[in-house]
Amino acid sequence: MNALTSAVVKELFQARFAVVPDVVASAPGRVNLIGEHTDYNDGFVLPAAINYHTWVAAAARDDRELHIIAHDFTDQIVRFHLDDDMQRDTMMPWSNYVRGVVQQLRKKDFRLRGGNIFITGNVPAGAGLSSSASLEMALIRALTALSNEHVEPKAAALMGQAAENEFVGCNCGIMDQLISACGQADSALLIDCRDLSTRAVSIPPDWDILIVHSGVKRGLVESEYNQRREQCEAAARYFNQRSLRDVSLTHLLAAESALEPLLFKRARHVLTENARTLVAAESLMKGDMGSLSRVMAESHASMRDDFNITVPAIDTLVDILATAGQGLAGVRMTGGGFGGCVVAIAPHAIIPVLMAAVEDYYQQETGCEPTLISAKASAGAFA
Ligand code: GLA
Asked: What is the mean pLDDT of residues 305-330?
């Protein structure tokens, strides 16, 4: 299903609206190599945009209405006026991303035109690969282009995040939107989520990314996610700091007996994960797989034991891949957790070995069906 191109999307649009679209925009999903649940703690992350995209085609209308078709939701249609008071839609939740984004664009005084809009994509939904962020970024691109408005990539990312926080109701950090907007081909991006500065880290040309969907649908994500965030904020408050970024590991360890054990574990994950992310970026830059695979293994253990966001099938999948990789592959769960995907990065020649191991053992050991996704680090929507 990875054969969507601008031409295909144009044709699909034309078949529905009987006009040629003025704009065809796309934005990628992402895979996070390391730095999990660190973004909302003002920490470091190391994601890459991937070659799976959400596409938004648009043609201007004479009125101030948006008529939106969601191809991947059985061509459902939603219509609203750009100046409407935005209400959350429980029947067609996908449309909340559109309403949330329009609300943010309005707040920032972008002068939007009405339009016929068509949405489709091939970022697997509910897999932890940021299909929502890619939808937000593609929408912002398309709606601003349609209105001859210019938007800066980081501003777009912040509006996407605000749409989720304020309208959709997910308290996510900035990682997914920022990488979908600013990703670079053949590179991961080291992002400092405190000041949103980014540094591209090229992936060695003979290394590939393999994503394996565990077949476990992500459950309880929102409530568990928001709870982890609250626990991190509570831990930061204990140290009288605004975020865990301002707490050192030495201080945290010294407070172990005084801090509530669960908060201690949550904070330990975040602080050690920040340190691992910096080591990982360095290792990637040098092509040092020994070091990268070590920190990725430690990251997974920390997500499992300190942050408690993995599930047994994911742990088994990581074990199978790491055993097959024999230190020549970096392997860990990727994304918010509670199901979803595992990421592996390895020299080209090792990838078939990893794939064979998943096919030989995973379903037999867990009863879950894996999906193998070969991914390429790709350019962001605004790159
Ligand atoms: C989700 C959120 C991100 C980030 C990750 C965990 O993808 O949208 O902001 O917090 O989980 O690293």
From this structure: 97
